[in-house]
Amino acid sequence: MPNRAHFDRCKGCLKTNALTILTMFGVLAGIVLGLILRTSSEERWSQRNAMYVSFVGDLFLRMLKALIIPLIVSSLISAVGNLDLSLSGKIGARAVGYYMVTTVMAVILGIILVVAIHPGQGDDKGIEKGEEFSRNITTEDTLMDLVRNMFPPNLVQAAGFHYRTVLIAPTAEEEKNYTILVKNDSAKIPVHKFKITGQFVEGVNITGLVVFSIVFGIVIGMMKEKGAILLQFFTAMSEAVMHLTRIVIWLSPVGVCFLIAAKILELKSFSLLLGQLGMYFITVLLGIFLHGFVVLVLIYMLVVRELPFRFIANISQPLATAFGTSSSSAALPLTIAALEEKNNIDPRVARFVLPIGATINMDGTALYEAVAAIFIAQVRDVPLGIGSIIAISITATAASIGAAGIPQAGLVTMVMVLDTVGLPAQDVSIIIAVDWLLDRFRTTINVLGDSLGAGIVNHLSRQELAKIPPGDNYASNKTTGDGGENGIEATQM
Fold first, then answer.
1. Do the Cβ atoms of 194 and 167 come closer than 8 Å?
2. pTM, whole model, 2 decimals?
3. Which of 260, 244, 338 is nearest to 25 (CA)?
4. Is the CB of residue 137 less than 8 Å from the CB of residue 396?
């Protein structure tokens, strides 16, 4: 009988973790499939052939992205609306405080590693330029765009577009006139004197939607019984999206497999992982590993007073999906489901903290941008003083907050960090060859940081949350005799 009991336990464990195991298998299968297809032909795979391989994965990624907006809006509004206003403020302050501390620690760790290892020293083996990033940008414009996007003029437009400042370079005649004016043949018009305009570019304005949803949820909570119908609508919508998510995530093993296989086929040469670029790759990877599995783990242990390894194991499926899709926003529905169902995180915390984290908490991106900027300066033999390094740390922190939770968004904000060091935007092309792979690792650590943050906030808020049962809000208590019970039923998974 002991053997039978052991067999039943193993069977139950496999059944519970079947999706996680299948997703991890999908990651490994994608790597193997990509290597097999790559070595099966002497000629390099064309972009079209790689597109055929990634087609199934792209469909899966589209399904996940379609869930982002309804999930963020409904989850935030229902979570904030179901909380006492003073409690929602405390939870928000704890979450933002955790995010800011961990982001600064990630930047400091990255700077220490890149200065100590000095990956930019040596020959230029492995350095190959890719596409050029010619967009003019300044630190001030990027930070102001971040604030502008917090207040979208059109919510429908915010679902598909975000605003950015565009600096128009001067014409040859204007350059000539400026040279004559300053009487210097080598003078160029500084970027701060470029003509300023703006445009809405494709990409979800997640920051604006998050801010609106939080404020709207607060207003519904203040309306008490008058806002009951709205709160019930968004609570039901949040539950519907989570049920839909459970259906979509069963496609993740197949989708992740083909996404990774296609990326391996698109890689120009494995020799690019040698030399300086290889040392840069190792430095970033080491930093991401230390931050995710040493720094964040220690913070969790100190606050929660327990080891987080079971907690991390329970979110391995969304972590694998984050690695495969390279998008923390796309992995958001899976992360919320895993935290609520496997780690028993209060839905009001998970659905409040995680969307904010997917927007502003980019530890992996912050570390990567600090390392990349100093690495490029080392390659170009540009000396950096303590003042420049401090400026890089501040700018990398701000840039990571402005980076959207979409694949390789960090490359855009990387331009802002390079501007701090005085390096041209085109130097971003130096690291493009390995960025696609590093992007997957830093996205995974971003999701890990968000999840551990939700666990910490849930622990710190447990006593206050216990006083307000899930779904028990002002409106339901006053409008119906059993409203609280119905509310609880509505938010259970």
1. yes
2. 0.69
3. 260
4. no
- With a CB cutoff of 8 Å and minimum separation 6, the contacts of 400 are 103, 362, 363, 365, 366, 369, 410, 413
Residue type, 433: A
CA distance 49 to 47: 6
Q: Which residues contact 368 (CB under 8 A, 6 or more apart)?
A: 110, 284, 287, 288, 410, 438, 442
Angle, to 10 degrees, between the axis of helix 296-304 and the axis of helix 85-117?
140
User: How crowded is residue 152: how many other Cβ atoms within 10 Å of its Cβ?
Assistant: 21
- Residues 56 and 318 sit within 8 Å (Cβ to Cβ): no
Structure tokens at 462: 């447990």
Domain boundaries, the chain: 49-160+203-491
382 burial (CB, 10 Å; 0-12 / 13-18 / 19+) is: middle
- What's the alpha-carbon Rg for the chain, to the nearest Å? 24
Structural contact between residues 177 and 133, judged by C-beta atoms closer than 8 angstroms: no
Of 347, 393, 350, the closest CA to residue 488 belongs to: 347
- CB crowding 38-49: b at 16 or more within 10 Å, else e: beeeeeebeeeb
The phi-psi region of residue 381 (left if phi > 0; otherwise alpha if psi is between -120 and 50; otherwise beta) is: left
Tens digit of each residue's pLDDT, the chain (493 residues): 456 666 666 666 666 667 767 877 888 888 888 888 888 776 667 778 888 888 988 888 788 778 878 888 888 888 788 777 677 788 888 988 999 899 999 999 999 999 999 887 755 544 444 444 445 566 677 778 878 888 999 999 988 888 888 888 777 776 766 676 766 666 666 666 778 888 888 877 877 888 898 899 889 988 888 888 998 999 899 888 878 877 887 888 888 888 888 877 876 665 555 566 788 889 999 999 999 999 999 999 999 999 999 999 999 888 988 888 777 877 888 899 899 989 999 988 998 889 888 877 888 888 988 898 888 888 878 787 787 788 788 777 776 765 554 455 556 567 667 766 667 666 776 776 677 778 889 889 999 999 999 999 999 998 888 877 665 443 333 333 333 333 333 333 3
CATH architecture of 49-160+203-491: Orthogonal Bundle (1.10)
Q: Which residues, 6 or more positions from 229, have their beta carbon under 8 angstroms from its beta carbon?
A: none
Supply 167's token pair.
């600096």
